[in-house]
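stage 2 :: seqdesign
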């Protein structure tokens, strides 16, 4: 079931469902090219795509290269700014942002986040560590960032199940 930190706006949800579903389908191709199983895109308020990037932790050997961090860097490069807040941009991503990406989103000036699979399910299906995230829906609301979660969740979960079944790498530091 979709969750949000505002009263659910059916138009936003409809558009987000289309975009997130599209990202889940595209993600399969990125995985076969060696990317991690997460894909993010940034759109402006007119529905124009600004940037789209997948997780590249393994193929670019950098633990910070989550899809959301990559797409924020790409969008800032496209627009030539370190502050996206004047652009009223939305970030769409195939799974819930981890604790690092929540920070990255806050410092970027992104105004809305729409994600597919919730972190708990990502951890259960894959074994990836998503970190601790105390009450981030309310924290983002206070910062003027809209959040919608669990969008087209079943489609996203199927992609993650495939990632694991195909024997792809689940990376995390040892404890
Ligand atoms: Zn992340």
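stage 2 :: out
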């Amino acid at each position: 079931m979709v969750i949000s930190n505002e009263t659910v706006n059916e138009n936003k949800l409809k558009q987000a469902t289309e975009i997130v579903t599209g990202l889940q389908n595209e993600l399969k191709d990125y995985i076969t090219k060696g990317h991690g199983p997460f894909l993010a895109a940034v759109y402006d308020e007119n529905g124009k795509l600004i940037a789209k990037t997948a997780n590249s932790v393994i193929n670019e050997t950098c633990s910070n290269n989550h899809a959301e961090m990559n797409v924020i860097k790409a969008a800032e490069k496209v627009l030539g700014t370190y502050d996206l807040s004047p652009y009223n941009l939305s970030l769409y991503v195939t799974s819930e942002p981890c604790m690092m990406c929540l920070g990255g989103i806050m410092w970027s000036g992104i105004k809305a986040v729409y994600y597919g699979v919730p972190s708990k399910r990502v951890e259960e299906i894959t074994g990836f560590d998503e970190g601790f995230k105390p009450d981030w829906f309310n924290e983002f609301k206070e910062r003027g960032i809209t959040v919608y979660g669990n969008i087209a969740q079943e489609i996203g979960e199927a992609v993650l199940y495939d990632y694991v079944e195909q024997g792809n790498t689940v990376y995390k530091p040892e404890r």
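stage 3 :: structure notes
- The chain is about 40% helix and 15% strand.
- The pocket of zinc ion is lined by residues 66, 68, 97-98, 100-101 (CB under 6 Å).
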